[in-house]
Amino acid sequence: MSGHGEAQPMTARKSGPLSGTAAVPGDKSISHRALIFGAMAVGETRITGLLEGQDVLDTAKAMRAFGAEVTQHGPGQWSVHGVGVGGFREPADVIDCGNSGTGVRLIMGTMATTAMTATFTGDASLRKRPMGRVTDPLSLFGTQAYGRHGGRLPMTVVGAANPVPVRYALPVASAQVKSAVLLAGLNAPGETVVIEREPTRDHSERMLLGFGAELHVEKGTEGHVITLKGRPELRPQSVAVPRDPSSAAFPVCAALIVEGSDILVPGVSQNLTRNGLYITLVEMGAEIEFQNPREEGGEPVANLRVRFSDRMQGIEVPPERAPSMIDEYPILSVVASFAHGKTVMRGVKELRVKESDRIDAMARGLEACGIRVEEDEDTLIVHGMGPGGMPGGATAATHLDHRIAMSFLVAGMAAQKPVSVDDASPILTSFPIFEGLMQRLGATLERD
Ligand code: S3P
């Protein structure tokens, strides 16, 4: 897998028009959580539409190591026999979360208030990412963590034997930190409170309610105040995972920039904490129809009809929208390269601590493709060259980052000259069917 196996270079050439239906896989955030909450419920949780990307498979393996029975019954169809809140057993070996920040941070929270010791590691990308944002609040429960310099993995976490509940105001807008604290709060007595100034994805809150926890959210002047009552008995659920709006972003954006395209992307989650990219694209002048809006698996979804859009204008993306589209800035910066005028993305410094430093990775790659880019610590500005305007003819470094790899491959589908990536293997972490799905739509993607 990424970081362990051979690099897989890939090239995208001017393609299209793209047409047909792009059925993207299940949502990554919800897939991780379905396995984790399932492992903390008493009895059998059934999951359909689970994303079988490497990140989620690593979480499934970790849940087995903590004592849950996790079984695959068919494509996307899984069951988890949970051990109950506080019922985890100490893993016999190191937990390797691969490339997944969500996996490692949520699992640390899950074991943090149970008396046991676990050691976590990951690939070269994950070992560079900060864990202090999670271990700091976990220490308030009584949890101890011993990692490398700067709170990096590998890290050993010693769960609190007598945890106390916590009141914690998030210093960064992070659903992973919020979720880690809530998961730890499940096995603490009394009420754990998390306060978030800016709303981040709310899948943990929705699923905790679904699994029978007592949780309420108050919207006040300090933001969202989330209160969770500790030590519930979680009831097993049937979880239908909706399609991932962050994965849908790639075929959607490809269709917007590849001349003549007209595609349908069915059943994409339109959860308000996840749909910032789609709002932004519409503001830019993208032709996207949101058809048949409905509820599926407790999430609002719609079918997206997307057509090539030659009149997109660069815009200033409101910084407060960042949490609802945090994973979509790489692909938005590709679309911005094919729009008229400049697109200004401020308030995006969190991008520097994702699977790669995404501001740097996008800026360097787009410059190599002939696009003018400006950046500072918290900002990315892309000067668009209009439809078909990107010269291309470059190879982008993907730094073990799936979204950087897919973004540059989409760029190559509309650029004048081919665009290559040095390693497409990280795509398997979140969108294992990307290559075939894009080829069936009419994209020219070649392995080098
Ligand atoms: C995620 C939260 C986000 C996002 C990540 C998935 C989650 O990270 O970037 O891909 O499932 O909670 P942060 O919590 O660091 O913003």
What is the fold's blueprint, element by element?
Layout: E1 10-13, E2 19-21, H1 28-40, E3 42-48, H2 54-65, E4 69-74, E5 77-83, E6 95-96, H3 101-111, E7 117-121, H4 132-141, E8 144-148, E9 152-158, E10 167-169, H5 175-186, E11 191-196, H6 203-210, E12 215-220, E13 223-229, E14 238-240, H7 245-257, E15 262-269, H8 276-284, E16 287-296, E17 299-307, E18 316-317, H9 329-337, E19 340-346, H10 358-368, E20 372-376, E21 379-385, E22 392-396, H11 402-414, E23 417-421, H12 434-441, E24 444-447
Parallel strand pairs: 2-15, 3-14, 6-7, 10-11, 18-19, 22-23
Antiparallel strand pairs: 1-23, 1-24, 3-5, 4-5, 7-9, 8-9, 11-13, 12-13, 15-17, 16-17, 19-21, 20-21
The structure holds shikimate-3-phosphate.
Residues 29, 102, 174-176, 179, 201, 326-327, 350 line the site of shikimate-3-phosphate.
